[in-house]
Design goal:
- The strands form two sheets. The protein has an eight-stranded parallel β-sheet with strand order 1-10-7-6-5-4-3-2.
- It is built from nine helices and ten strands.
- By secondary structure, the chain is an alpha/beta fold.
Length: 279
């Protein structure tokens, strides 16, 4: 399996590679800058060179980046939308410099103006960002958890977005298991998982599934609650992850975004995944 964690870039961005190696990852995900601010500090040439050299030496491929938390590419608020577009463009350039092939982004909220208008704004932002970036970085649309006004909680909406963008070869999907479960997609029974896999195949297509965020859920099925839990300790549970890890979903690289608390460490979560996959 290709499996890893979202790791910190604290200190210097190349230290993320050291952290991923120490955890036993063979892939990993990062923010390329502070995820809670709009304006990133410029990347230093020496840390870019060190990041590329370290990940190449460690054989950690593919690597993923994630856009900041503040981004809302579906927002009707002019200033937020403008800043979100700028942040997306900046992150695409930082991925190019760091030789990171994939950039994961949340799609945002239409804030009550309607999903149609929200999707229209999102598509315009993606089109402009990819046109001006002029690189090969692929944007991965992350599915939502089904909360009010959120864009992209239905897999059919992700397909529609991919069909409508001007550069469909540079747009694919990141499926978050916590978000999907909270949005009503079942994983816990063979029949439920079979139905979910069929929906994935018929809507987005497995060839467009480039990453799985492997997270348990504190919220129940269809709850709309975006609250990640340690593997097997949430509502999906160990039996659900046994099924997931023996399904086609495990053929895609997987990134864990499990909680940071004293109940279980990252290494223990990774050990649990491997245990469930082999049981």
């Amino acid at each position: 399996m290709k499996i890893g964690f979202h790791v910190s870039i604290s200190g210097s961005i190349d230290l993320a590679v050291d952290r991923a190696v120490a955890l036993g990852c063979n892939t990993f995900q990062i923010f390329t800058r502070n995820p809670r601010g709009w304006r990133p500090r410029p990347l230093k040439a020496e840390e870019v060179e060190a990041f590329i050299e370290k990940k190449s030496r460690a054989g950690l491929e593919p690597v993923y980046a994630h856009t900041p938390y503040l981004i809302n590419l579906a927002s009707p608020r002019v200033e937020v939308y403008k800043r979100s577009l700028e942040a997306l463009m900046i992150d695409l350039e930082r991925c190019r410099a760091l030789e990171i092939p994939y950039l994961v982004t949340h799609l945002g909220s239409h804030l009550g103006t309607g999903s149609g208008l929200g999707i229209e704004r999102l598509i315009k932002a993606i089109n402009r960002a990819l046109a001006e970036a002029e690189n090969e970085v692929i944007i991965l649309l992350e599915n939502g958890a089904g909360s009010a006004h959120q864009i992209g909680s239905k897999l059919e909406d992700l397909r529609m977005i991919m069909d409508m963008v001007e550069r469909p070869s540079q747009v694919a999907v990141c499926l978050d298991t916590c978000h999907a479960f909270a949005a009503g997609y079942e994983f816990r029974t063979p029949l439920g998982l079979e139905k979910t896999l069929k929906t994935i195949e018929e809507s987005i297509g497995f060839e467009k599934l480039r990453l799985v965020h492997l997270n348990d859920s504190r919220g129940g099925l269809g709850s709309g609650v975006d609250h990640h839990e340690h593997i097997g300790l949430g509502e999906i549970g160990e039996e659900g992850f046994q099924l997931i890890l023996k399904s086609r979903l495990a053929e895609s690289p997987m990134i864990l975004e499990t909680p940071m608390d004293n109940r279980r460490s990252d290494i223990e979560n990774l050990r649990k995944v491997k245990e469930l996959a082999s049981s």
